[in-house]
Please model this.
Amino acid sequence: MRTFDGLDFYDLDVFLTEEEKLIRKTVREFVEKEVIPIIEDYNEKAKFPSQLIPKMAELGLLGAQLKGYGCAGLGANAYGLIMQELERGDSGLRSFVSVQGALVMYPILTFGSEEQKEKWLPLLQQGKAIGCFGLTEPDFGSYPSGMRTAAKKDGSSYILNGTKMWITNGSVADVCVIWAKTDEGIRGFLVEKGTSGVKTSDIKGKISLRASVTSEISLTDVKIPAKNILPKSEGLKSALMCLNQARYGISWGALGAAMACYHIALEYAKERIQFEKPIASFQLVQQKLAWMVQEITKAQLLAWRLGKLKDEGKIKPHQVSLAKKNNVWMALEVARMARDMLGANGTAYEYHVGRHMCNLEAVKTYEGTHDIHTLIVGEAVTGIPAYR
Ligand SMILES: Cc1cc2nc3c(=O)[nH]c(=O)nc-3n(C[C@H](O)[C@H](O)[C@H](O)COP(=O)(O)OP(=O)(O)OC[C@H]3O[C@@H](n4cnc5c(N)ncnc54)[C@H](O)[C@@H]3O)c2cc1C
Model:
């Protein structure tokens, strides 16, 4: 099969700097060499390839968009290209890097004390510590402000009780950013590994993001020193700020999964012979490929423009919602189409498209479901919230 070289139907590379292209090339090579040969096996065994963490840290991929404490301080589009290339390998791998950088390092940098930043950011950036972000609960996903997890002040400590569900890296994390209700509203807390009263168990039997750890975290009378509260976190707004960072990365990441599926389907269609001709010569097959090119190109433009708005400090949450929802929907449709074009082979792990397709089902749901992002865009254009 021809080596993957992306898709650039509208010559969008002219918008990228030499540094951005170099970063893309570096991560693409890493994924080609270190991820693609092993990922199907890890996916089948439902294991996260943790040996890749030090390598990704060495490449500066963890918290690459942040400034200070050893982070690379990259621009939004360079960071987006990292997400794209990682998700070309696997959505679970991209999820790991998203959670670490956007949902753990970002809140510590933005809402944390100097002591918290100095303690955690270098370790997280070097991959020597793993983080997780606990917002979702068994009964509260799309409606996080209903959360039951509570933190009660007790002298110089807080006592946390509650359950967090579907938490990426929950059981392997050295530090969890746990969102809990206090008398002053929702706040973020740093719960460290080994704290008494914290129990984790992994969610088994997932059809999606199998090469990623997803856990339940239960907190029973967990005593946290007051210095572990994120002092500048203020209400659910702070948690949503973190989610917006991660959603931005997902809008790029989805492009990677889509481009992988497009590439595999195109190469397959040129080689697969039916009715004495390559299936790529049939109009219905070409229609599918043309649709993929059309939608990937539109999604690339959305992501690139969003990155520019982010760097200019003009990005709005509803713009992030539009890109997350469109690009993940597009990627899922491309993956489903690719799976179909590969016929029975599309259902086999070794052809990758089935794994991408299953992964994208979870990506469509997490970080705000497709429908919740539709409501965010709907509210932005009408001024009328329609969540209830
Ligand atoms: C693999 C994986 C990893 C995850 N990692 C994390 C993590 O690290 N940290 C974390 O905190 N969470 C994580 N999540 C949880 C994820 O963010 C939630 O699953 C998501 O927010 C949706 O919540 P829910 O599953 O409870 O669905 P629900 O909120 O119950 O939604 C079910 C359906 O109802 C629809 N719906 C809900 N409300 C409305 C409404 N007002 N109008 C119209 N439709 C509505 C939704 O769109 C959806 O289709 C993860 C999930 C998965 C699958």
Observations:
- The chain has a mean pLDDT of 98.
